[in-house]
Design a protein that fits this description.
This protein has helices at 17-26, 44-54, 97-104, and strands spanning 3-8, 31-36, 63-67, 78-83, 88-92, 106-110. Helix content is 26%, strand content 30%. The chain is globular. It has a 6-stranded mixed β-sheet. Helix 2 (44-54) runs parallel beside helix 3 (97-104). By secondary structure, it is of the alpha/beta class.
């Protein structure tokens, strides 16, 4: 069983219902957590700082999903990063990984 931690700038109105539903459809045993949905709108730097602050505290294998991107709805790439502490981050290719790289290192990134 793994854990997925969500972060967005969506606010709590949506509540992540669709994200949770898809995850539970794939694996009902996944533990799902919210880091925050109150990142200031489109604030990629704050999203990166949030991740850098908490990623070191979670066990290897945890997946962080960060949905904060000014280019949402465009052809902006999403990337998956394997971090130095064994965690993973899925985020837009928008610079948010810079703070995480400084905190725990990035071993590999794929589009």
């Amino acid at each position: 069983m793994g854990s997925i931690v969500f972060q967005s700038d969506y606010g709590l109105g949506d509540g992540g219902g669709a994200l949770y539903g898809v995850c539970k459809s794939v694996d009902p045993g996944l533990a799902l957590y919210d880091l925050t949905h109150d990142v200031p709108p489109l604030d990629v730097a704050e999203a990166g700082r949030n991740l850098a602050r908490v990623v070191p505290l979670w066990p290897a294998g945890t997946v962080f999903v960060s949905a904060v991107d000014p280019a949402t709805g465009t052809d902006h790439l999403v990337c998956a990063a394997r971090l130095g502490n064994g965690c993973y981050v899925l985020t837009a290719d928008n610079g948010a990984l810079g703070a995480v790289a400084a905190a725990v290192g990035v071993e590999e990134v794929r589009d």
